[in-house]
Amino acid sequence: MIRITIVLFLLLSVGLHAQEKYAEVTRDAPIRKDSLSSSSVIERVKSGVDLPLLEDRLFGTGYLKVRTPEDKVGYIYKSRVRVKTKPSSEVTSNVDQNGNLELHIINIGQGDAMIIRCPDGNHELLIDAAELNAGFRYSGSQTEFRNYMTDFQSKDNPIEVVVATHPHSDHIAGMSWIINNYTVGKYVDNGMPNTSGTYKSLERELDEHAINRLRLTDSLVPKIDFCPRADVNARILRPEGFDEPNIDPNNYSVIVRVDYGSSSFLFTGDAEVEMENKLIEDQNTVGLLDVDFLKVGHHGSHSSSKKPFLDVVTPAIAAISCGAETVGTNKGHKHPRMITVNALIPYLKNRNGMETTLEAYDKANRKWDRVSTKAALYITNNDGDLIFLSDGNEIWRKGDQ
């Protein structure tokens, strides 16, 4: 009898101290009967719903086992949810409009779209604007971008600074929509012309709206301080040789560093090893590369994030914006690459929560492969929309604290 009582007491103690986990749905999603993309859909859930997490591990190629609102057991893909220890009704927001800088990396597929909000809650910096929906590009990219921006920012709230890192469509396709729907205080691009219809249409919009436009090629580096606070600084890094003749547009990307207090962020567009080397070799820029957060260049391609560059940057957190492996242009690009994922992991701190499985293309073996890690490497195709916060000292992903 004494032994049974002790066992029951221990079981009760474990139950009291165990934290029930929930999967917060961040985007409308199907719940499947099994942990396979081909499995039948048993229920569909809307963004904002909390689903009890039944097991603290991943199934199949990245599914979580949950209990549905209709009290069924099913599987939801990890990039559609955020795991947490309390339901939304008991969670107080991490966002303090008077204290935290916000970085939003929007899950728009194969492309880039990021917006940063000043800790005062009322000044923004937009970097790039997603891919085209049309044809073979990336279905739904513009729809996701416009929906996110509309929810994030009212159209009567100006965007202080907009940066188009370079004129490829997966970075500028939504710029015309931005110009037509928001007041833009300052528009900065690299000054490189392009023959695409997307670029030509954007040029007309910039002219017609008389946008205050600055170029990377201006004699003085354009000022991009979007936030009036003294402890927030944004600058462009322009190394020697950035504008050499016949340079690839990727290596002509506008490179942006943002600081809030002692926390720092680096955004490199599609910069490849050529630009990384220029940044390292120029004494005016090398000292500005060591940051806490790296938005990984060129969607995690093998052409970027080389060891000499990472040795200088030493990021604690990194994020990759890329599309699904079989969708649109990523059928050919195959981003991210496993060599890049493996190169980044040793530099990064551990993320909170469970170990996650990242998918990347292994060029050496000509196949998509997976790596399980707790490293703070976030990929939009794996983690969905990404929101990072900084209080001026630390940077964390919203929901991870």
TrEMBL record:
<dbReference type="InterPro" id="IPR052159">
    <property type="entry name" value="Competence_DNA_uptake"/>
</dbReference>
<dbReference type="Pfam" id="PF00753">
    <property type="entry name" value="Lactamase_B"/>
</dbReference>
<protein>
    <submittedName>
        <fullName>MBL fold metallo-hydrolase</fullName>
    </submittedName>
</protein>
<dbReference type="InterPro" id="IPR036866">
    <property type="entry name" value="RibonucZ/Hydroxyglut_hydro"/>
</dbReference>
<dbReference type="InterPro" id="IPR035681">
    <property type="entry name" value="ComA-like_MBL"/>
</dbReference>
<feature type="domain" description="Metallo-beta-lactamase">
    <location>
        <begin position="110"/>
        <end position="324"/>
    </location>
</feature>
<dbReference type="InterPro" id="IPR001279">
    <property type="entry name" value="Metallo-B-lactamas"/>
</dbReference>
